[in-house]
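As the work plan foresaw, the team has encoded backbone shapes as discrete tokens. One protein thus recorded appears below exactly as we store it.

:::
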Amino acid sequence: MKTLGIIGGIGSGKSTAAEFFRQLGAAIIKADDIGHQVLRFPKIKESAQQRWGDSVFSTDGEIDRRKLAAVVFADENELAFLKNLTHPLIAEEVLQQRKKIEHSSVQLCLLDAPLLIESGWEYLVDVIIFVSAPVEVRWERIKSRGWSETEWKQRESAQLPVEKKSRRADVVLDNSGDVEHLRSQVETLVRKFVYTPARQ
């Protein structure tokens, strides 16, 4: 089984590309979904309570991701604390999910992890794919999520610049056109990685 990692700037179309991979038979592991689950762990909530108090919690006693994001993306020390708290647990769950997939008949696994490089998770994948899109296109997509420009800039500044991410990738997908253009590139990659024998 080949494991691919997909990265890109915010709003680049990673989720769309990942969905195309899924439609073509790849198993998808979403690091963000795992991260959301980790925030519900009692020991994580306890640490968050000690660090930030009630300000990052909703009325149901769970961590409010939007409130938490407002705190950590405004201060790199707080973001570093959160990463140190949650990323080892996320990586552990990724490995567990990948192990289960390896025991199935699936030939291709895709790890959707926006912070793959920043987190030092290259060891979890065989190939890194970068989804590229012009900044103005990304901003239009980001606005449709209800984000402010400040939120976008804070989150993007917490990541490697897209140019550096692109250089660290093994493959670049161009998402400056329509979705069919992106789909055709994904189809080409799936054919390559599913049918091309692994290097010895």
